[in-house]
Structure to design on (133 residues):
């Protein structure tokens, strides 16, 4: 089995499919990681300063949750995070229909990014039996 790419090697990015954020935190905490729930970014951060893309200070013990970056190796998503991202995308599409075209187009592009994030989770997620094996 090939080794994971360096960006994801720092923190496990997959938890068992169907896992809630609370159960995911428990699953990941077994490795001694400090976890931070960031529902606004639809993820849990398994914080490691050396690999964080949120550009934390050199002595930081927590992520900069307002600067979460897509593709960060510290990010962990659950099925409920993916579902919430899709619902958010639907809300953005509904708002886009009521906006002038340039702003509506921007909302639609953002909605598409949230759907892509959820789709990426779905394609990479593992069921509990696969994650434990």
């Amino acid at each position: 089995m090939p080794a994971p790419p360096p960006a994801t090697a720092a923190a496990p990015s997959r938890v068992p499919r169907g896992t809630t954020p609370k159960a995911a935190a428990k699953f990941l905490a077994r490795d001694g990681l400090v976890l931070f729930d960031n529902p606004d970014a639809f993820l849990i951060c398994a914080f490691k300063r050396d690999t964080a893309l949120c550009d934390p200070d050199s002595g930081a013990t927590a992520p900069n949750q307002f600067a979460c970056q897509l593709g960060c190796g510290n990010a962990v998503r659950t099925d409920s995070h993916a579902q919430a991202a899709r619902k958010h995308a639907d809300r953005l599409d509904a708002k886009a229909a009521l906006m002038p075209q340039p702003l509506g187009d921007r909302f639609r592009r953002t909605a598409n990014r949230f759907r892509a994030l959820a789709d990426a989770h779905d394609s990479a997620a593992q069921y509990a039996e696969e994650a434990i094996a």
